[in-house]
Amino acid sequence: MFGKLRVLEEKVSRNVKTSATDLADAVATVRRRWGMHSVVSLDAYRQPLRSAPSSPTDPPLWWPSTTPATQLMEMGGADTGGPLTLALLWLAAVPADGPLAVIDLDGCMYPPAAVVCGIDLRRLVIIRPPSPRNFFHVIRELTRCGGFDAILGLLGKATCFSLAEAGQLRSFAHEARTAVLLIHDAKPEQGPRFPLADTRLRVADRTWLWDDGELSGQCLCVDMERSRLGLADSRYELTLRLYRQGTHGTQSDHLYLDSTLRTRGQRAFTATRG
User: Fold this and answer.
1) What's the rounded Cα separation, in Å, for the pair 184 and 204?
2) pLDDT of 165 higher than 60
3) C-beta of residue 49 within 8 angstroms of C-beta of residue 156
4) What is the mean pLDDT of residues 182-199?
5) pLDDT in tens, 80-97
6) pLDDT digits over 67-78, tens only?
7) By the number of CB atoms within 10 A of the CB, which of 8, 32, 65, 137 ranks highest?
8) Is 159 exposed, middle or buried (0-12, 13-18, 19+ CB in 10 A)?
9) From the candidate CATH numbers 3.40.50.300, 3.30.360.10, 3.40.50.1820, 3.40.50.740, the one assigned to the domain spanning 5-200
10) Domain-wise residue ranges, the chain
11) Largest pairwise CA distance in the chain
12) pTM of the shown model
């Protein structure tokens, strides 16, 4: 189900926080409840990993390399492409080498885009619940099993966690030391989707970057509306650059976080990649 289960089990067996049996049980539970085809095999999209420029030496406070493993985040934005791109870069930056999960409610997850963002598809599991009401049950199973280093949830428009559900998920995630990021395209006036988020972000704007008539990246303005880490009500301007490798016909792309500028919440600072 989760790509090749045997490969995932080997990775989990090297991870001290859980056992292969726990992960296999979670796989079996999802298969039993939502069918054999509720998870996408990624073998057809697998590509060799490529070297790329490093990340900024001082990334945003909520980046995986700077936050606790148990961080629960919510990120919204009217343009779903902006939050999803940033979320995939966040997922790729998770420092451990265990399995990663994406819960894709609306079927908008495109595996080749994950490769461009630097994700090793051998680590990645994609689960597509049949309806919004199943979303909580799926993410609860994945956090409770403790077999994933990070979980990215792509919420549909109608998905919203109750306070009780949020508390239960938060407890499981902290116990398993699993990072969770939930993204959605709800408007600000609709309120938060996850009431107990440690950090709440909103992608406020996106600008495309061009170089000699070719797309070379994008700039995202990200507001940190809530944070247990401090500096809430901060704005970050993130520059994402497209790194191209190879020649025409065999060219491969890699998107990376090139620089960070905090323009609100404290004196402005700029961090560029090392």
Assistant:
1) 13
2) yes
3) no
4) 82
5) 568 899 999 999 988 878
6) 666 688 999 887
7) 8
8) buried
9) 3.40.50.300
10) 5-200
11) 53
12) 0.76
Q: How far apart are the C-alpha atoms of 142 and 155, rounded to whole Å?
A: 15
Beta strands in 93-143 (DSSP E): 100-104, 124-127
Q: Which tens digit of pLDDT belongs to each residue from 195-252? A: 888 889 999 888 889 888 888 889 999 998 888 766 677 888 999 998 877 655 555 7
* CA 194 to mean position of chain CA atoms: 15
Distance from C-alpha of 107 to C-alpha of 80, rounded to nearest angstrom: 13
Instruction: List the alpha helices (DSSP H) in the chain.
Output: 5-13, 20-34, 81-92, 111-116, 135-145, 163-176
pLDDT of residue 71: 81
Which is nearest to 257 in space by CA: 88, 38, 71? 88
Structure tokens at 205: 């704007």
Overall size of the chain counted in residues:
274
Q: Among candidates 196, 222, 187, which has minimal Cα distance to 61?
A: 222
Structure tokens given for 229: 């880490």
DSSP calls for 150-183: EEEEE--TT----HHHHHHHHHHHHHHT-EEEEE
Q: Which range scores top for mean pLDDT: 40-44, 242-246, 250-254, 263-267?
A: 242-246
Position with higher pLDDT, 79 vs 186: 186
CA 18 from chain centre, in angstroms, equals: 21
Look-up of token digits 């919510």: 74
Strand arrangement, sheet containing 150-154: 39-40, 124-127, 100-104, 150-154, 179-184, 72-76, 199-211, 214-227, 234-245, 252-264, 269-272
Amino acid 129: pLDDT: 87
